[in-house]
Amino acid sequence: MNPKNEDKIFSEIQDFLETLIPDLAQLASVSFFNLTEDIKKRVEGLKRLNPSTMERLIKTAWNLEEKHCSEYSLEEAIKWIKLNKPSEATGGILLKMSPSDKDIVLHHCFIDKDQNPLLDGKHPHRIVYTREISEDLSRQFGEKDMLVFK
Asked: Is 68 exposed, middle or buried (CB count within 10 Å of its CB: 0-12, 13-18, 19+)?
């Protein structure tokens, strides 16, 4: 694909996403497959894109990273937060979602000084799909579904 066309399409996707999902906090409930199908129906010219290119553009627009692994550790969680923490963030969050069919779903994001999640697409957000969490991470969660890192 021509880089100029990709930039134009990226811009169209970004504009479209802002109208489709104005609050990116809803991202956790959005299926990329359903979103991709909806985008194909609504935005002129996207029918030429293959699904992997479209998914990459959507993730880039949202500053979203996905990780698939067999086990996720506390060390990995802390490392990601340290490497990606924006200057305006006062901390990071790791949220454990109810397991899907096979995987445990973890959401990393950052919080501002008022403890609000920074989910505006300008700040890094990571979703981890893992079969297991390590013993040290499991101990940290205990009976809770969220960890806050300061």
From this structure: exposed
